[in-house]
Amino acid sequence: MQPSAAGFRPEIHGLRGVAILLVVAYHLWTAGRVSGGVDVFLFISAFLMTASFVRKGTAFRLLDFLVQRFRRLVPLAAIVVAATTAVGWVVLPPTRYEGLLNHARASLIYRENWRLIADEANYMVADPQRLNPFQHFWSLSLQGQLFVLLPLVFVAAAALERHRGIPIRRTLAVVLGLATVASFAWAVHRVEVDPAAAYFETWARAWEFTAAGLVALLPTLRMPAALARALSWAGVALLLATGLLWGRGAFPAWAALPPLAAAALVILSGPRSDDAGHAAWWLSRRPVTFVANRAYSLYLWHWPVYVFTVVLTSNGDHRTGPVDSLTILALSFVLADLSTRLVERRFHRLDLLRSKRYAATAIVAFTLMATSVLGGVAALVEADDRATAALAPEQRPGARALTPGPDAAVTPAPALPTAPSPTPGRGIAPGDRAIALDWPQDLPPCEEGVPGHPARPDLGWCGVLEPEGTPTRVVAVVGDSHAFQWLTTLIPLAEERGWRLAAYGRAACRVGSPNPDPGCTEYTDEAIAWLLETRPDQVISTGSSTRADGAEHDDWGWAEAIAPVAHAGIAVVNVRDNPRWAFDMPECIQRYGTDDPRCSARRADKLGEAWPTGGLADLPNQYYLDFSDWFCPPTKVSICPGVIGNTYVYMDSNHLSRAYLESMGDVFAQAWDEAMG
């Protein structure tokens, strides 16, 4: 039997400490890199769980295991969820309240990873400017789900040995082996198609658990001391190098192999904590085990401390300076130490918790405590929305507050009264909290087998609006969220005029754009093929691209990609991109007020003097819609504000709000008719 199955191995515990330090360090001092520490966490948990089951054999009791496991996890997790929710209500701007509550609930019931996937899939939610203080709960949720699923395999294996005489090890080897191959293959596929979702997905991560179970089934490996030392240090070195090799987008497929191999090498090299030449000796030293003893608490606390520090000290920049980072680290350690002493150890030592009844009661009690805090914050949030809800339509005209000026330009209408409020930003439609959820209107999803359905719907999102009778024309929308946001103005027009409106898009993937995501390249090919096959009357997408630094350009391959469609006689309607910001615009307004210069910019700093159409000018069947004057009204000192007509123009750092787009309905219809003749 693997020696780890016989008892406590301090070097494995120490490896957990190294893993958590890597996780925290990478969160504080790197961007877009993955340390591999979470993967090691998952691997160690599954290894120890499988080893424990093999040791117990047919005596394994599922209920006992679940109660024992979750009594260690739930109390502190519930405290952190409650504390983070309460502090978030005080520290975060109202735009984040709804997300705060949604992610708190998901974290409490071990579904945060799936909540994050849902947010990633929604092209309007996945805004990198909005740090989520519960995001780190994704790995705990994944762990909790597999803590329920994997023991079911143990129960089945024990039953087969009792009733059929099939050895437990044989059953586990077959089941875990097949599961590892299937899950890894799925992970490779998902990373290619949708890497953002794959990173959090249970089925794409399951192989890390099952592979650890296979390692736990290996017999004792006896090897020369020199070889054991070499393997142990190779494992440590491989773990430390993981973050230098790949970014987040490559996990959890091939990129997850190095950290898992690192953990396996340390484990298989044996428990040689008496050999100073072996990594196990160093991993068993007190400084390392001190961190390991607080690993769970440190993991829980460090991320919300980091998020709240960023919110309080920066404006759209997630980076923290050396002093702030060290302060975050120190405060996280203090909270972790107190939590370990006052919560984890006390609940672990209380004899009454050895009873399943009392343990279950404790789990429920802490969950209810956290739920009550969430309910209280939700009630306060609802009360904050009432002032804005009282706004009359004429008090929130949005783009209708701009009146036509000379040469089709626009000029601001007189200032409008807002709902009385002592807080900056209050009284602006659709509301301080609602603006974060003010996503542009969607189409009903496509149904497979219906004519015009994309061949590869898995590469993006597909929607279609069918008229009651024969469509008067067919309009298609392709591209990313900046193209899809115009569905809010297109849908009423399509319903009024009997159009068939179809859309096929992919988040963060402009058609023809150079993109490291291989799925984006595939999407571009499929989108063009779809347009050539369905042959709509018009296809609409963004015809330029802006950046937060103000540079507007056309050099991302749209003209080259759409050329076959234009030459096929299909009208291509290009919409000029709207300004983007280096910060969350509604949050800026809520923090500083509508008139603060930090929440606006000169038009010349956000948009080019003229639309950079580039290669589009050489193509036939090109049409242009430019709404820049409705985002940056041309005045003597032309600026791009965050609020027009008591309405938020943007819902985040770069997407237009649904409320403002709805106010542009007549403007869009008029521009469409003028462009299309």
UniProtKB/TrEMBL annotation:
This protein's UniProt keywords: Acyltransferase, Membrane, Transferase, Transmembrane, Transmembrane helix
Keyword Transferase recorded: yes
Residue ranges crossing the lipid bilayer per the database entry: 12-29, 35-53, 73-92, 137-160, 172-191, 197-218, 230-247, 253-270, 291-314, 320-338, 358-381
Domain SGNH: 458-670
Lineage top rank: taxon: Bacteria
GO terms of biological process kind: lipopolysaccharide biosynthetic process
Pfam family, one: SGNH
Keyword check for Ion transport: no
Composition bias, Pro residues: 414-423
Region (Disordered): 393-432
UniProt GO molecular function: acyltransferase activity, transferring groups other than amino-acyl groups
Protein name: Acyltransferase
Organism the protein comes from: Propioniciclava sinopodophylli
